[in-house]
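User: Second chain of the day. Same drill as before.
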Amino acid sequence: MAKVTLEQWRMFQSVVEHGGFSQAAQAVHKSQSSINHAVHKLQESLGIPLLEVRGRKAELTDAGRILLARAGGLLNEAEALELVAASLAAGEEATLTLAVDVIFDFECLCNAIERFAEEFPHTRLEVRETVLSGAEELLLQQQADFILSARVPQGFVGEPVARVRFVPVAHPLHPLHLLGRPVARKDLKASRQIVLRDSAVKHRQDSGWLGSDQRITVTSVQTSVELIERGLGFAWLPETRIRESLSADRLLPLPTEEPWERDVTVYLIYADADRCGPAAEFLIRSLRAGLGDFE
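Assistant: Same format as last time:
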């Protein structure tokens, strides 16, 4: 049986985070004496000093530094457990956050949201559109309940739900279409490329062919499409987002020497599958229904 309580670990963590007992007491709305008592009992039970008080500041000992790192994981797990319990007790979720990569089928997404809004009118849904590693970052920062992304973060399991084809395209009157021959790598290098910027903040990553000497970087697929329809460059774009432009001949696939179309798999990844209530499950079923069977 554990000698110490989660509350003692929480008080210890607060003292370190806020730089002292009085500061921690103010931050967590407890008396300084109760925090002093909790940390004292923690050290007494463990038999090792975790903090050294120097002036008005409490500093970690070497042992305290090691145990604080482990305690952080323990407290996070306890908080996650409480959230699961709250979700189960409440039944229907009050809010849901879905992060979805912009390559995902936009029509399928809108249809699923429409069905969701009819079935769960009181659940607030936030849909955050992301580029490249943006959805992954939101998941790792616990800012999304689930994501649709081409990237599966380490430590998570992704369920493949769709495959998206990227096609190199340009305006029908773009010089690349007027060459009278298949487009070579050197032709692309000499032309302007429209590039989507990674929406992640901390760890942005480049992806795809970025060999053009001229480049315009944008933050949305729609802006990319509009620039290309104006003849300002070429790009690899997901077929899911340019069906209308292709059918209206506002964009045409480039006849390249190499087979440069590429397929990307989109995965469904949960922050915590056990926390998914009826609203989340309904939205996921609606998305799957719009996509059909994945092969």
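The mean pLDDT is 85.

User: Great, on to the next one.
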